[in-house]
Write a structure and sequence with these properties.
By secondary structure, this protein is α+β, with helices and mostly antiparallel strands. It contains 4 helices and 9 strands; from the N terminus they run E-H-E-E-E-E-E-H-H-E-E-H-E. A 4-stranded antiparallel beta sheet has the order 5-6-8-7. A 3-stranded antiparallel beta sheet has the order 1-4-3, with no helix packed on it. Helix 2 crosses helix 3. 20% of the residues are buried.
Length: 168
């Protein structure tokens, strides 16, 4: 599937083209000006102390999957075009979209997902370290497939939290 939901089935099917709140026929171009009050002391959005530049996390880093804010907790493919998981969610396998690229044009591979996971698990914010410590095993299946197996066999949310993992 290209999606996963915390409860029930995702609202949009596998063949959806855009979210309900997005209009692919909308006018393009123009100028948008945003403001932010205050200051920042880091451009690293994963610091624990200090203040990061406003919006940098969402503008620079992308997760494996993205939320549909019209649903309570459903994720749809972004870097990962497909996910495979059993009904009990003891593991999840992400299939990386072959068109997914870093800003320098380099294709995103499973080894990049593993690198991001290990960095966030070992050096990330406390929430990343806490959640990712519940992953028992990570297997790179191919350049475009990676599987995460969980030690907590009753945590149905962990598969979705991994889908929100920012790729560094």
């Amino acid at each position: 599937s290209n999606s996963i939901s915390m409860h029930g089935s995702p609202l949009l099917g596998d063949s959806f083209f855009h979210f309900q709140h997005a209009d692919p026929e909308s006018t393009q171009g123009g100028e948008l000006k945003l403001a932010s009050l205050g200051t920042f002391d880091s451009t690293n959005p994963f610091i624990i102390k200090g203040r990061t530049a406003y919006g940098i996390k969402d503008l620079v880093f992308e997760p494996l999957m993205q939320r549909n804010y019209s649903e309570p907790f459903s994720l749809y493919g972004l870097i990962a075009e497909k996910v495979v998981y059993p009904e009990n969610r003891n593991w999840i396998e992400f299939h990386i979209n072959k068109l997914a690229r870093f800003s320098d044009g380099v294709q995103i591979k499973s080894s990049d997902i593993l690198f991001s996971f290990e960095q966030l698990k070992n050096n990330g914010r406390p929430n990343h370290r806490s959640y990712y410590s519940k992953v028992e095993n990570v297997n790179i299946i191919s350049d475009t497939k990676i599987k995460f197996s969980f030690s907590d066999k009753k945590d149905r949310e962990l598969a979705l939290i991994l889908g929100l993992m920012p790729i560094l």
